[in-house]
Amino acid sequence: MSTFKWLPWIVLVALAAPAALAFKTPTRDEAVFTSPIPQQFQQKAIDEKNGTLSWRTLAQVETVKQRDKFVPQFSPAVLALDNRPVRLQGFMMPLTAGDQHKTFLLSAQSPSCPFCLPGGPDSLVEVQARAPTRFGEEPVILAGRLQLLRNDPGGMYYRLVDATPVVAR
C-alpha cells in the first residue's frame, strides 16, 4: 500500500484539528458574530513571484464522477502544463522527520499556522526533488517538470519531478 494513499487524510486531520478546536460557537445573546480567528493569525495568501506558476491556475480543476470513482477534470490552461517545466512557490511539508528531504509536499498555505485550514488537492503538489532539499518554514521556489495525476491512489492532482530549489537573486 502506497504511503501517499493515506497522506491527504493524515494531512487534513493533522491540520484541521487545531483549527476546529479554535472555533467558538456564538451564544444566543451575542448580537454580532465575529470571526473566531484573530486577524493577526488569519492566513495570508502567498506572494506570487514573477515567473512562478500561480496557485490560482492549479485551482482550475473540478472533481467529476466517472463510472464508480471521482477523478480530476483539468481546465485547458492546466492541461497545457502537463510534463512542462515550471517554477512553483510554496511551503515545504515534509513527510518524514529530518532536515533534508527528496520527497515532500509543497503547499499553497503555510503548514505552521495552527488556525489555517488546509486547501484541497489543488493546493498541494507532491515533490520529487533531484537532490535532498533542506527544510525551512519560509516559502521556497522550486523548478521542475509538472505532471498531472489523473488517477493517483492518494488523491493528489499534481507532482513536480526533478525539482531543484531556485536561488533568490
CATH topology: OB fold (Dihydrolipoamide Acetyltransferase, E2P)
Largest beta sheet: strand ordering: 3-4-5-7-6
How much β-strand is present in the residues?
Answer: 25-35%
Tell me what the CATH architecture is: Beta Barrel
Compute the separation of the termini in Å.
Answer: 42 Å
- The unreliable regions are 20-45
Helix- and strand-based class?
Answer: alpha+beta
Give the helix level as a range of percent: 10-25%
Report the CATH C-level class.
Mainly Beta
Instruction: Supply the number of structural domains.
Output: 1
Described by strand count, sense and barrel closure, the largest sheet is: 5 strands, mixed, barrel
Mean pLDDT: 79
Query: What's the shape?
Result: globular
Secondary structure tally: strands = 7
Q: How large, in whole angstroms, is the Cα Rg?
A: 17 Å
Oligomer: single chain
Number of helical segments with 4 or more residues: 3
**What string, H for helix and E for strand, traces the elements in order?**
HHEEHEEEEE
What's the SSE blueprint?
Elements: H1 3-22, H2 55-58, E1 61-66, E2 69-74, H3 76-79, E3 84-94, E4 100-107, E5 124-134, E6 140-148, E7 158-165
Parallel strand pairs: 5-7
Antiparallel strand pairs: 1-2, 3-4, 3-6, 4-5, 6-7
Explain the overall architecture.
With 169 residues, this protein is α+β, with helices and mostly antiparallel strands. It has a single domain (3-165), classed as OB fold (Dihydrolipoamide Acetyltransferase, E2P) (Beta Barrel), CATH 2.40.50. The chain is built from 3 helices and 7 strands, in the order ααββαβββββ. The chain has helices spanning 3-22, 55-58, 76-79, and strands at 61-66, 69-74, 84-94, 100-107, 124-134, 140-148, 158-165. The strands form 2 sheets. A 5-stranded mixed beta barrel has the order 3-4-5-7-6. It has a two-stranded antiparallel ribbon with strand order 1-2.
